[in-house]
Amino acid sequence: MTDYEAPRDFPAEVDESANLRAAMVRKIVASGHATNPAVRSALELLRIEVFQPDRPLSDLYHAQRDVPGVYNGRSIDPLVIAAMLDQLDVRPGNKILHIGTGTGYTAALLAEIAGPDRVVTVDRSNNITIGARAALRAHGYDQVEVITGEGNDGAPGHGPFDRVIVTASSYDLPETWVHQLAPGGRLVVPLRFRGFERSVAFTLQDGVLRARDSQPSRLPRMLGANHDLPRTSPIGPRGQLVLTWDHDLAQVVTGHKLGEPERYTNTVVAWSDVVVRDDDPLGRLWLHLAATERTVFGLSTQQPTTMMPDLAFPEATPAIIANETIAYLTRREIPADDDGTPRYTLGAAGVGLISARLSAVLVDRIQQWALHREAHPTITAYPADATELPPGQCIRRPSCSLLVRAGAPN
C-alpha cells in the first residue's frame, strides 16, 4: 500500500463529486436500499475520493446494481454497504464495532450516523489501518478508534457494542463477537455456508444469535483462523466443474466418486412448473435448500461440458449429493415476459447412480420454495457444543452450530 495522500480540492472536482454522489444515492434507493434517511444522508455527504484518492471519480461512485457485493480489490461497492447498513439499523449513540477497516469509508459512514466517538474499527493489516486513520482524520473523523488486530478477536476492552458489522466474508462466528455484543444487539456478517454467501442480520437474544433477514452477498474472504475451511474439489467428466463444500460434509465428498467419467452416462433432467424472470433473486431458493436438505453444495464452472446439462448459473449453482449422485439446478429459456425480460423454467439435472430419484427430490424442493417465495428461513447460531437443538438443518462450525429452518408463509 502506498503512503496516504489527501486529495487536492478543486472546485470543479468538488461539484462533480457532489453530482456523482447524488446520482449514486438515487441508484441505490431505486434498488430498494438506503431505506433509512440517516444512511442516505451519510452516503450523500461523504466523499469517497478522500478514502481512495488515486482512483477516478466515475469509478468510485459506480454502484453495481446487477452484481451485488462485487469487490474491486480495495473497497466494497457502495450499494452493498448501503444494504448492510439497512440491516444493521444504526441509531444515534449506538456503540459500534466494525471488522474489516479497508479504506475507512464504512467506518466514516457509521460515525456519521452514530457519532464519531461511537465507532471502533479493526483490521489485521497495519498498512491498511495507517491509511484509514489518515483518511478518517482528513474527513474530520479523528475520534474513530482504528485498531490493528485480528478480526476474530474483535476489540477487547472496548465493548459491549450495540452493533457489530463485518465487511469481509466469514465462515465462522467467533465467540468473541458474541461476547462483545450487548444483549439485544445486532451483528451483520456476510456468512458462507452450503456453497453460497448471505449477509445475515443476527440479533442477540438470551445468549443466542437469531436471524430472520439475510441478503445476497459476495465479499472478499476474511483472513485468519477458521475462515478458510470451505473446500473445493474438481468433478465432472474432465474436472470442468468445481464443487464447494463445508468441512462438516467431508465424508460425503470423499465418497461421492463423481470424478469418474462413467458416472456421467446416467444423466436425467426433470423439469418443474416454476417460472422465474431473469431479474428474480434466487438466493432464497438456495437458502430453502439449506433449510430442508443436509448435503447442499455449490457447483460452478468456467468451461461448460456437453456431457452434462448446463448449470443454472455457471458462477454458482446449488446442488445436492446422495448415493454417489449429484443433482443440481438447471434452467431452460421460455418466451420473454411482456416487458422483454427473459424468463426460464427451473429444473434439476441428476447425474449418477440414482439420478432420476435425486433430481425428483430437487424438483420437489423447487416446487415447495415457489409456493412461498417470500418466506425467509430462519438462521440461529448456537454455541458449538450445543446438543439439544430444535428441528432443522444443523451446520457445524468450529465456534458455533448454525440451525437453518424453513420459513413460515407470510
Quick overview:
This protein is α+β, with helices and mostly antiparallel strands and 410 residues long. Helices cover 25% and strands 29% of the residues.
Can you describe what's shown?
By secondary structure, the chain is α+β, with helices and mostly antiparallel strands. The protein folds into two domains: 11-216, Vaccinia Virus protein VP39 (Rossmann fold), CATH 3.40.50; 231-371. Helices cover 25% and strands 29% of the residues. The chain has helices at residues 11-30, 37-45, 57-60, 78-88, 105-114, 126-138, 175-179, 250-254, 283-292, 355-371; strands spanning 96-99, 119-123, 145-148, 161-166, 181-193, 196-205, 208-216, 231-235, 241-245, 267-277, 296-301, 317-322, 325-334, 343-352, 378-383, 393-396, 400-405. Strand 1 (96-99), helix 5 (105-114) and strand 2 form a beta-alpha-beta unit. Helix 1 (11-30) packs antiparallel against helix 2 (37-45), helix 2 (37-45) packs across helix 5 and helix 9 (283-292) packs across helix 10. The chain is globular, with a radius of gyration of 22 Å. The N and C termini lie far apart (49 Å). It is found in: Cytoplasm. One of its GO terms (molecular function) is protein-L-isoaspartate (D-aspartate) O-methyltransferase activity. It comes from Amycolatopsis australiensis.
